[in-house]
From TrEMBL:
<keyword id="KW-0132">Cell division</keyword>
<dbReference type="InterPro" id="IPR007060">
    <property type="entry name" value="FtsL/DivIC"/>
</dbReference>
<keyword id="KW-0131">Cell cycle</keyword>
<keyword id="KW-1133">Transmembrane helix</keyword>
<dbReference type="GO" id="GO:0051301">
    <property type="term" value="P:cell division"/>
</dbReference>
<feature type="region of interest" description="Disordered">
    <location>
        <begin position="73"/>
        <end position="186"/>
    </location>
</feature>
<dbReference type="Pfam" id="PF04977">
    <property type="entry name" value="DivIC"/>
</dbReference>
<protein>
    <submittedName>
        <fullName>Cell division protein FtsL</fullName>
    </submittedName>
</protein>
<feature type="compositionally biased region" description="Low complexity">
    <location>
        <begin position="153"/>
        <end position="186"/>
    </location>
</feature>
<keyword id="KW-0812">Transmembrane</keyword>
<feature type="transmembrane region" description="Helical">
    <location>
        <begin position="32"/>
        <end position="54"/>
    </location>
</feature>
<keyword id="KW-0472">Membrane</keyword>
<feature type="compositionally biased region" description="Low complexity">
    <location>
        <begin position="124"/>
        <end position="145"/>
    </location>
</feature>
Length: 186
């Protein structure tokens, strides 16, 4: 019986082995493989979308930085223009172009209606224009001036005399009179 029982067991095991293979079947592996493929594809697509979003943000950032630089340059140029228009000389020049004149002594009205100070009418003063020092050419000597070679020794300016001589058109102070220094443009 042992022999027949052993054969019966082998026969049953053989039938079961034929009906149920010992390893995992291809039908059981298919859902797992599909899951792994879907996870990999989803990861790659999400990385692609993330990368393109970062690139778009980078382009937008560089465009905004460029606009900021341009606007900063424009703001500095406008501030320079405002500063040049608000200089005292420029304000005075523009006011004179508009026909404005400097005011005289101010007068004030007190709350009771009395006037403090002496009111004066504003009059147009000549515009102070800065004058450049005039340079006159050296006097030419002619043979009629005298001398053996035709040159007058007193007419030739010395280098030290021309540096200290007053400009043409101004009167030199009388000897012994105090000289007042003048500054150009005032």
């Amino acid at each position: 019986m042992t022999g027949t029982a052993g054969q019966q067991a082998k026969g049953r095991a053989g039938r079961l082995a034929r009906l149920m293979p010992s390893g995992p079947s291809t039908a059981a592996r298919t859902p797992f493989v599909l899951l792994v493929v879907l996870l990999l594809a989803g990861g790659l697509i999400s990385l692609l979308l993330l990368n393109s979003a970062l690139n778009e943000g980078s382009f937008k950032l560089s465009r905004l930085e460029r606009e900021t630089t341009e606007l900063t340059d424009e703001q500095q140029a406008l501030q320079h223009d405002v500063d040049s228009y608000s200089e005292p000389d420029a304000l005075e020049r523009r006011a004179r172009q508009l026909g404005m004149v400097p005011g005289g002594s101010p007068a004030f009205l007190d709350p009771d209606g009395t006037v403090r100070g002496v009111p004066e009418r504003a009059t147009a003063e000549p515009s102070p224009t800065p004058t450049a020092p005039e340079t006159s050419p050296a006097p030419e000597t002619s043979p009629e001036a005298g001398g053996e070679d035709g040159a007058d020794p007193s007419a030739t300016p010395s280098p030290t005399a021309s540096a200290t001589a007053p400009p043409t058109g101004t009167a030199s102070p009388a000897p012994g009179a105090p000289s007042t220094p003048t500054s150009p443009g005032r």
